[in-house]
Structure formats: structure tokens, C-alpha cells
């Protein structure tokens, strides 16, 4: 065949990879379902290829792609479409009240213009808040990681991945054993709002102390740039023999990251409703199910909670007391989102709710428990203690280890 391999970062290759990726996943509902659920997103997934003769793009078994030499103008068409689609994605998100834009608003997507820093100097391309900055950076980071480890490669690694453990089961078990909300203890070195929390940071040692102190599950931050975490921490903790199921704490914007979390030892993964439109949440929770992972869907306000309640199959919802845009923390947020009819719906649906962030004292734990949570996610107050297992006992006002 008269075909050539495209340069690693060329737009046609990225689009072709997306195409082969979409094609390779089973849980996508049929076209008609996309139209019913959200017509715009059908376009988002399929339109870049409509004006092209599809056989021109051939995905290879290893996840790479080749494009026929005669189709060079199609490369340009794809470039333009990618840009349009990027814009469109933000419009869909905005209609759902999502303020976070997936990419800088002007010009073609980052893939074609070089490093993030370069774009930041352009007027109009400044992120509006820290969450948006993280997401824009993540977009670049993920596309680079995907080039190094294409989905096809990750899929092969799935065969030898360690078994998934039951995340929600562990939380429920701890809840009935201790009478307190099940603890997800976070292995967190630093955050953009608090800076470095612990200088002598040994993730495996901290994980073991958490387990000893009675944590039901652990959360491991994998973002490097903003939280000084890493996938190597997740992997090391998983391989250390710690039995608590592990949550991969990431800013997921691409389903590839879910596969990557799974092959690095995660049992659960965070999906942030402030970043992901409804269809992304639906699609990603399906991929989680396919891989056996638990999705922890995080919300911060009523609108996000209501969106999530419309999506079937969500079993674990986290209420973040911290606004990821402004860093403001208020534990009354958990109570507010669990009140009245909304709380009733959550109970009827059998959703397990996690109270997240800003929990420091036994009174804080009692407050969110009273509000209806069956689990809590805690980082700062316990990771800062010399012995994090003692930190857990102080947090609950009681030794919960046995
Ligand atoms: O350290 P805290 O205040 O106990 O918070 C832990 C956890 O809730 C927080 O790290 C968190 C909640 N949602 C997130 C999303 C991304 C990064 C971090 C988070």
C-alpha cells in the first residue's frame, strides 16, 4: 500500500488515533443513542471524519496510524476540524454550567503550536483559575504520554495487571465495623493551595501507616506538576503489599488515563464533574466498569450533583468541600448538597457519598456523618502528622484500627 507513517505529533495522526481509540472501545452506545442523549457530542466524536474518506486512515494493531500519501489536504482539513471541535466541546460544556475550558480558547489546539508556556504568553489564553490551568496542562501532558504509550500497548498490559479490589465494599465494611464513615486516606505531598505538606515524603511508608491506623482505602495523587505526586507512587504502594484499595487521584480528561491508572495498580479513579461534560462522565464510567474500576465522581455544587444524579450507574459520589477554582473550603457544603429532596434521591439510588476536604477534627467528622456521608476523604490533617496512623486516631477521636 502506498502509505507513510505520519510524524508523531501530526494532527492527522492524533485524529486517527482518536478514531481508532473510539472504534476499539466496546461500551460506546450505538449512534442513535448518542443522538438521543446529546446530539452535539455525536458530532464531536464523528464529524472530523465525515468529510474524509475513512479508508484513508488506517489504524494499526499497535494503536499507531497510517494515512495515504495522496491525502495531504485532508491533513489540513483535519487540523481545522480539530480546532472547530475543540471550540464545540467547550460550548457543550458551557451549556451544562461547566466553566472550565478544556483548552485555551483562541488559535488551534496546543498540539500544533508547541509548548504550553508559549501559549500562556498569548493574550486571551490565560487560564481563568487554577483548575483550568491544571486541565490545560494535563491536555498537553496526556497527549505526550499517549504518544509514548499508545492505548494498544496499555491494553496488552491489562492481561498481567494485578486484580482489582472492591473499593466501595471496603468503605462499607469499615463503616459498619467502626460506626464512623469509612476513611479514604490521601497520600499527598503538596497542593497548589497549601504548598508542601510534608518534606520527608515516603509514599509507601505513609500508606502503610494509614493502613495500620485503620484506613479503609487510600487515595494517591498522581499529578506531578501541581501536587508533586506520581504514578510511580501508585505503583509502589500497590506493589508494597498494602491491602487497602487505591484511588488514583488524577485530573482525568481522556479515557486513556483510566487505562493507565488500571495498569499502574489503581482500584478506583476520580472523575471531576467540574471538568467533564455529562457524556464524558457516562462514557468514562462505562470504561471504568469495563476495566473493573470504581469511579468516584466528584461534585462541588448543586448543579453538578443534579447532573450526576441524572446519569445511571454511578455508585460513588464525592462532595468536595473545596472549590477547586478558588480554594475556598467550607464543610457545610457537604450538608447543603445532601439536604431535602436531593438527599432523598441520593439515598433512593443507593449512592455512597464521600465527604471530601477540609476535615480536621472529630467534630468535623461527626458533622459530615450527620449530613449523611458514609465515607470521608482526608489528606492534609493526617499526612502532616509525624505518624499518620496517630493522625487518624486524632481525626476520629478514637483508635479505629481494629
Ligand atoms: O487535604 P484535604 O483538605 O483533607 O483534602 C483531601 C482531598 O479531598 C483533596 O486533596 C481533593 C479533593 N478533590 C480533589 C481533586 C483534585 C486534587 C485534590 C483533591
TrEMBL record:
UniProt keyword Amino-acid biosynthesis, yes or no: yes
GO biological process terms held by the UniProt record: L-tryptophan biosynthetic process
InterPro entries assigned to the protein according to its UniProt record, in alphabetical order: Aldolase_TIM, Indole-3-glycerol_P_synth, Indole-3-glycerol_P_synth_dom, Indole-3-GlycerolPSynthase_CS, RibuloseP-bd_barrel
Organism: Sesamum angolense
UniProt GO MF annotations: indole-3-glycerol-phosphate synthase activity; phosphoribosylanthranilate isomerase activity
Domain Indole-3-glycerol phosphate synthase, first and last residues per copy: 131-394
EC number: 4.1.1.48
Keyword vocabulary terms for this entry: Amino-acid biosynthesis, Aromatic amino acid biosynthesis, Decarboxylase, Lyase, Tryptophan biosynthesis
SUPFAM superfamilies reported for this sequence: Ribulose-phoshate binding barrel
Protein name (database record): indole-3-glycerol-phosphate synthase
Keyword Amino-acid biosynthesis found: yes
Reaction(s) catalysed by this chain's protein: 1-(2-carboxyphenylamino)-1-deoxy-D-ribulose 5-phosphate + H(+) = (1S,2R)-1-C-(indol-3-yl)glycerol 3-phosphate + CO2 + H2O
PANTHER family: INDOLE-3-GLYCEROL-PHOSPHATE SYNTHASE, TRYPTOPHAN BIOSYNTHESIS PROTEIN
Biochemical pathway: Amino-acid biosynthesis; L-tryptophan biosynthesis; L-tryptophan from chorismate: step 4/5
Amino acid at each position: 500500500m502506498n502509505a507513510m507513517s505520519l510524524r508523531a505529533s501530526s494532527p492527522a495522526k492524533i485524529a486517527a488515533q482518536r478514531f481508532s481509540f473510539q472504534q476499539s472501545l466496546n461500551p460506546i452506545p450505538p449512534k442513535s443513542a448518542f443522538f438521543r442523549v446529546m446530539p452535539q457530542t455525536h458530532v464531536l466524536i464523528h464529524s472530523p471524519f465525515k468529510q474524509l474518506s475513512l479508508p484513508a486512515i488506517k489504524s494499526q494493531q499497535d494503536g499507531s496510524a497510517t494515512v495515504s500519501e495522496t491525502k495531504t489536504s485532508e491533513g489540513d482539513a483535519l487540523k481545522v476540524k480539530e480546532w472547530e471541535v475543540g471550540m464545540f466541546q467547550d460550548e457543550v460544556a458551557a451549556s451544562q454550567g461547566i466553566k472550565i475550558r478544556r483548552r485555551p480558547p483562541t488559535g488551534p489546539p496546543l498540539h500544533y503550536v508547541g509548548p504550553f508556556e508559549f501559549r500562556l504568553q498569548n493574550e486571551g489564553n490565560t487560564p481563568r483559575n487554577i483548575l483550568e490551568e491544571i486541565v490545560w496542562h494535563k491536555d498537553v501532558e496526556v497527549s505526550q504520554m499517549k504518544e509514548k504509550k499508545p492505548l494498544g500497548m496499555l491494553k496488552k498490559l491489562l492481561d498481567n495487571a494485578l486484580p482489582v479490589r472492591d473499593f466501595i465494599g471496603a468503605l462499607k465494611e469499615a463503616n459498619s465495623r467502626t460506626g464512623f464513615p469509612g476513611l479514604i486516606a490521601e497520600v499527598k505531598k503538596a497542593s497548589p493551595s497549601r504548598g508542601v505538606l510534608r518534606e520527608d515524603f515516603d509514599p509507601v511508608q505513609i500508606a502503610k501507616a494509614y493502613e495500620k491506623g485503620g484506613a479503609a482505602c487510600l487515595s494517591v495523587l498522581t499529578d506531578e506538576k501541581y501536587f508533586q505526586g506520581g504514578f510511580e507512587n501508585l505503583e509502589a504502594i500497590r506493589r508494597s503489599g498494602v491491602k487497602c484499595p487505591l484511588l488514583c487521584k488524577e485530573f482525568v480528561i481522556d479515557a486513556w488515563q483510566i487505562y493507565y491508572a488500571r495498569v499502574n495498580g489503581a482500584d478506583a479513579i476520580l472523575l471531576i464533574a467540574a471538568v467533564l461534560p455529562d457524556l464524558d462522565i457516562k462514557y468514562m464510567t462505562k470504561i471504568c466498569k469495563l476495566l473493573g474500576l470504581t469511579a468516584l465522581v466528584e461534585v462541588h455544587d448543586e448543579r453538578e450533583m443534579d447532573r450526576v444524579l441524572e446519569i445511571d450507574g454511578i455508585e460513588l459520589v464525592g462532595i468536595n468541600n473545596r472549590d477547586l477554582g478558588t480554594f475556598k473550603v467550607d464543610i457545610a457544603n457537604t450538608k447543603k448538597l445532601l439536604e431535602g429532596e436531593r438527599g432523598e434521591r441520593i439515598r433512593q439510588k443507593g449512592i455512597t457519598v464521600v465527604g471530601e476536604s477540609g476535615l480536621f477534627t472529630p467534630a468535623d467528622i461527626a458533622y459530615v456523618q450527620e449530613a449523611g456521608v458514609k465515607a470521608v476523604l482526608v489528606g492534609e490533617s493526617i499526612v502532616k502528622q509525624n505518624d499518620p496512623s496517630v493522625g487518624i486516631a486524632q481525626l476520629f477521636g478514637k483508635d479505629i484500627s481494629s
